[in-house]
Each structure stands twice: as structure tokens, then as C-alpha cells.
UniProtKB/TrEMBL annotation:
InterPro entries: FAD-bind_Monooxygenase_sf (IPR051209), FAD/NAD-bd_sf (IPR036188). Coiled coil: none annotated. Signal peptide: none annotated. This is NAD(P)/FAD-dependent oxidoreductase.
Length: 474
């Protein structure tokens, strides 16, 4: 029987356990370094943390949950859902996988609980795992609490405090409205604004939840409608269809005008770059919150942080009691800090120029290794849960091919991976994400190990089967 080790207990790891079980694989072990499952939904406990993809799309297609309390479920519900789905499977919590080495047809994992061997290794480590802490001058001199949104300090009570929030991405726009009513003052430090559209969130009353439970088709239809909308957006963004994107920009402008009367604040929060270049943010309360009397937004560069203040480039000292770093993630580190090697070659060496993988899943020279949510499988719209399902379909097809050929190993051919990569890079160049803004997809050298440059329907098509010519077995 094929033994499979899965590293990571977020959506990808739990999805792997569930889909592999459905495909008949029983010897599957999931390793999660934290004491609970959830991945990003374990780490992001900041006030206001919730999904910004409708929950009927942000759930496994094979495990629909009719009981979501809202259209966009909050963090606690999503984590509970994942724990529920994972219940039947072999999950080793609080077990850190430090390294994995492939030798003589098998993977050996070095874990905090000892060695573990398996035929197949699946990494499910997420892209938004490691917080990015910017090198802000003087950050270490700050005397009060300072923490990242993904490492929220639950012991710190922000009530009545003057709070700095650095960053204006998807995390910041959720956290600021959530803390504003309790704190004395919020100062938002914006480097560059992003476009938003209304979220349209609402609770599902009990009768609606009962209806979804009784008539599952309704939930499936809602999922299909959301999928179609998101895939339309994925197509427009990846093909830089400015005419299709213009209505979103108009809606975003209107959202600003409606909520903000002060022309100076309006100017500051109105992005200059193309809509979609940064991830489009969904919100109903960001601009109304910015217009509140205890909220201030500065677009001046942070010059220095002192023991009790943040000084900006215009010479203004902003006195603060606590700092929230809503500064995003080291999204290009992928499996780090886990060290992966096949025989004498490390994945870090293979990825020295830029992380790349065939369909974001397999890497030449690394047999029996499959990456979930790997390089170039993020999008500007769509549900990563659906992407993970597509990837697992491909993984299972590869495992079946390996069995069909009675082989021990399966690995993508270098020529196939290179041909795919060349096609991908050409397509990436025409996407909206490469239109000149700063975003977490493209690094300072113009490398993009993040984005999928076509629609999600195209991704599903490509991953739904295995091209036997692309893989070799041994
Ligand atoms: P992010 O989108 O990368 O935003 C980071 C913010 O910090 C940006 O505004 C950035 O400014 C700013 N920043 C970074 N370094 C800075 C510095 N040195 N000085 C000043 N400002 C700095 O991170 P995020 O908001 O955590 O979101 C990341 C991704 O997580 C999202 O795109 C989304 O995919 C996901 N997410 C999802 C949800 C959800 O579903 N509910 C919620 C949160 C996050 P620039 O824009 O100028 O770089």
C-alpha cells in the first residue's frame, strides 16, 4: 500500500487527507506543527478575521456546510469546519517537519517527534504562512506591544489605546473597522492604496441554513454562480481586459465618494494603479471607518519608530501605545523553513532563481513529491479551496499512473516542466498584476512565483488528467 505523508494542516492538508481517502489511500499521515488544525485560519485570529470569498465557494465541494452563519464566514467557524472534516483522519498535531529527504525511492521526514518514512510526500504549507516583518527603523525600540495581524496578541487589550496599523491590505481593512469602536485612536499608515468593491455580507438566518441542509442543490447552485463570477474576474484580470474591469473601478470610486466627504482623504485612498493589480479588496466598512473622528490615515513614509511614537517623512510624530503590523506575508518562501532534498539536490537549489513547478504541483528531479498551493497557483480572484481540489485530482491521477506502471517513483520530465514554464511566463507578462503596482505576487526583480495567468476553468482542465508524456516513472 502506498504510504503518504502530508505536511501542513490547513485547507490543503485536510483536503489531501479527505480526497486521498476517497480515492482509496488509507496510509496517509498529516503533520501539523501547531496544536490545532486550520493553517491561516488558525493563525489569523485578529478582530474581524473572516473569509472574503463566499463560504459556499470557500469550502470543499465534497463537504458542503449548510450551517455557515453568514455569506462570508468568520475565522472561528472556518477553523471548526476544517477540524470537523479532518476528524476521521490520522493527524499528528504539534509535530513540526523540519526536513524531508528522498533517497532510494522513499521520503524520510525529520519531525520533532522523530523520523517518519513514506513513499510519497505532499507539501500543504500554504503561501501566506510566514509573516513579513518590514525592516522599519526603530521597530525594536518601541516600548509597547507590537505584533503582526497573523500573530495577534490576545493578551493585549487595545481598549482605550492609541493604535497604529501599518499597511492597508486585506488584513488591515478587516482589522481597523473591528477595533475602531474600542480604541481611543487608530492611525493607519498607508504606503499605497488598493481598490475595493462592496462585500455585500449578510447573515444566513436559521430558515436559510435549514433550507440549504434540506435542498443541497440550492447551495450547489449558489456555489456555481459564485464560481462563474470569480472565473469571469480571473479571466479579466489575467488577460488584462480593461474594459471588463472598468465597471469594478467605477464601483470602487463610488464606494469612496459615498463614504468619504473630505477631499484630501479621498485623494489619499484613491489608487492610481489599475484595478486588480493589487488584490481587489471586499469591504462594506473600511471607508466609513476611515471617516470616523478617532481614525486618521497618513500616506507619509514611516521614517522612524521610537519608544512611544511613529515619525513620518513629513516630520510629524504620531504618539501610539500599540503597533499592529498588517504588512502581509513572505509569500515566495513556499515550503520554508522545511528543507527538502532529493538525493544530493535541495529544492532551494532548484529554486535559486525563482520557485517553479509544473502546474504548480511537481518539480523535475524530485520524485514522488507533490506541492499543493505551490508556485503560480494563486489568483486575483477565485477560491483557493477549489484550486487545491483540482491539484489533488492531479496528484491522485499521478499516483494511479505510478501504480498502473507498477513503478516506485513518478517525476515530471524536465522538458515538460520547462515548456510549461515558458508558456506560463509569456502569459504572465500580459496580466494586470504586471502592470506596474506593488503587490505581493511580483518581487522587486519582476519575478512572479505566485500567479496563475489563465482562468480557473483552464486550471481545472489542465489538472483534471495526467499527460503520460509529461511524467516518467522508475
Ligand atoms: P498584503 O496584501 O501584502 O498587504 C500588506 C500591506 O502592508 C500593504 O498595504 C503594504 O503596502 C503594506 N506594507 C508592507 N510593507 C510595508 C512597509 N515597510 N511600510 C509600510 N507599509 C508596508 O497583506 P495582507 O493584507 O495580510 O493580505 C495578504 C493576502 O492574504 C491577501 O491578498 C489575501 O490573499 C489574503 N487575505 C485574505 C483575507 C480574507 O479572505 N479574509 C484576509 C486577509 C488576507 P504596499 O501595498 O504599498 O506594498
Amino acid at each position: 500500500m502506498t504510504s503518504i505523508a502530508v505536511v501542513g494542516g490547513g485547507f490543503a492538508g485536510v483536503g489531501a487527507a479527505a480526497m486521498l481517502a476517497r480515492a482509496g489511500y488509507r496510509d496517509v499521515t498529516v503533520f501539523e506543527r501547531e496544536a490545532r488544525l486550520g493553517g491561516v485560519w488558525h493563525h489569523n485570529t485578529y478582530p474581524g478575521a473572516a473569509c472574503d470569498i463566499p463560504s459556499h465557494l470557500y469550502e470543499f465541494s465534497f463537504a458542503p456546510n449548510p450551517r455557515w452563519s453568514r455569506r462570508y464566514a468568520p475565522q472561528t467557524e472556518i477553523q471548526a469546519y476544517l477540524e470537523d472534516v479532518a476528524r476521521p483522519f490520522d493527524v499528528r498535531l504539534s509535530t513540526d517537519v523540519k526536513a524531508a529527504h528522498f533517497h532510494d525511492g522513499r521520503w524520510t521526514l525529520e519531525t520533532s517527534a522523530g523520523e517518519h518514512t513514506a513513499d510519497v510526500l505532499i507539501t500543504a504549507c500554504g503561501q501566506l504562512t510566514t509573516p513579513a516583518i518590514p525592516p522599519l527603523p526603530g521597530l525594536d525600540d518601541f516600548a509597547g506591544p507590537a505584533f503582526h495581524t497573523a500573530r495577534w496578541d490576545l493578551a493585549t487589550d487595545l481598549t482605550g489605546k492609541r493604535v497604529a496599523v501599518i499597511g492597508t491590505g486585506c488584513s488591515a481593512i478587516q482589522v481597523v473597522p473591528a477595533i475602531q469602536p474600542e480604541v481611543a485612536q487608530v492611525t493607519v499608515f498607508q504606503r499605497s492604496p488598493g481598490w475595493t468593491i462592496p462585500k455585500g455580507d449578510f447573515p444566513y438566518p436559521g430558515w436559510a441554513q435549514r433550507l440549504f441542509a434540506r435542498v443541497p442543490l440550492l447551495q450547489r447552485l449558489d456555489r456555481a454562480a459564485n464560481y462563474a463570477f470569480h472565473d469571469f474576474a480571473a479571466y479579466a484580470l489575467s488577460h488584462r481586459k480593461t474594459k471588463l474591469l472598468a465597471p469594478f473601478r467605477a464601483i470602487g470610486s463610488l464606494q469612496i465618494k459615498r463614504a468619504i466627504k473630505d477631499p484630501e482623504l479621498r485623494r489619499k485612498v484613491t489608487p492610481a494603479d489599475e484595478i486588480g493589480c493589487k488584490r481587489i479588496m471586499l469591504t462594506d466598512d473600511w471607508y466609513p471607518t476611515l471617516a470616523k473622528p478617532n481614525v486618521d490615515l497618513t500616506d507619509q513614509r514611516i521614517e522612524r519608530i521610537t519608544a512611544d511614537a511613529i515619525r513620518t517623512a513629513d516630520g510629524v510624530e504620531h504618539p501610539v501605545d500599540a503597533i499592529v503590523l498588517a504588512t502581509g506575508f513572505r509569500a515566495h518562501d513556499f515550503v520554508a523553513p522545511m528543507a527538502i532534498a532529493a538525493e544530493d539536490r535541495t529544492l532551494a537549489q532548484e529554486w535559486a532563481a525563482v520557485p517553479r513547478a509544473y502546474l504548480g504541483i511537481t518539480v523535475p528531479g524530485f520524485p514522488n513529491l507533490f506541492l499543493l498551493y505551490g508556485p503560480n497557483t494563486n489568483g486575483g480572484s477565485g477560491s483557493v479551496v477549489a484550486t487545491i481540489e483540482a491539484q489533488l485530482t492531479h496528484v491522485i491521477a499521478a499516483l494511479k499512473e505510478r501504480e498502473r506502471r507498477s513503478a516506485r517513483t513518478i517525476v515530471v520530465r524536465r522538458e515538460a516542466a520547462q515548456a510549461f514554464d515558458a508558456e506560463l511566463r509569456t502569459a504572465l507578462a500580459r496580466t494586470v498584476w504586471h502592470s506596474g503596482c506593488t503587490n505581493w505576487y511580483v518581487d522587486e526583480h519582476g519575478n512572479d512565483p505566485s500567479q496563475w495567468p489563465w482562468s480557473w476553468t483552464e486550471y481545472r482542465r489542465r489538472t483534471s488528467r495526467l499527460d503520460p508524456q509529461a511524467y516518467e516513472t522508475g
